[in-house]
Amino acid sequence: MDNRQPPPQSLLDSLPESTTGDARDPAPVHLWHPEFIGELDMHITRDGTWYHEGGPISRKSLAQLFSGILRLDEDGRYYLVTPVERWAIKVDDVPFVAVRLEVEGQGREQRLTFFTSLGHSMVAGEEHPITVRVDTDTHEPSPYVLLRSNLQALIHRNVFYELADLAVDEKVEGQSRIGVWSDGIFFPIDGSVASA
Questions:
Q1: How many domains does one find in the chain?
Q2: Are 121 and 115 in contact (CB under 8 A)?
Q3: For the residues 80-91, what does the mean pLDDT come to?
């Protein structure tokens, strides 16, 4: 008699029911190259809300678990990845949102720590740069901070206003730019492109 359990029907079936509620270290998804299984009915909206089968994921701990196995591949698609399976999911913009900012120090000694809605934190600097994209039609800025690998967090509008209050003028490649200092690096936030 075969006592083996059938494989889970979806990634959801293989996740534990409870966690600590804290953001966990991400899994080493860059080392895994499993078979592509298909599209999972999962969607991350621009405000950072995770949806599954049309409804929001109400358990923050579950969204945190998923965020730890998320990967953006070279094809521009987002996947949830385990050692044995890879599922494509839909992401409207980027998968994370930075909803809080802590500031230490001033001027060039300043350190900016961002916190996402899922409890991740990162200090803006060489490994976690701030970038701003400007919509060519609306001219609205969209600011981001790199969380890990190639996964970004959209900086929430209220947090961007805080950055604007900290902004200073600096010369970048001979051009005056408005931006912020963090961890010894100046990040322009004015959305313009410095001339070469």
A1: 2
A2: yes
A3: 96
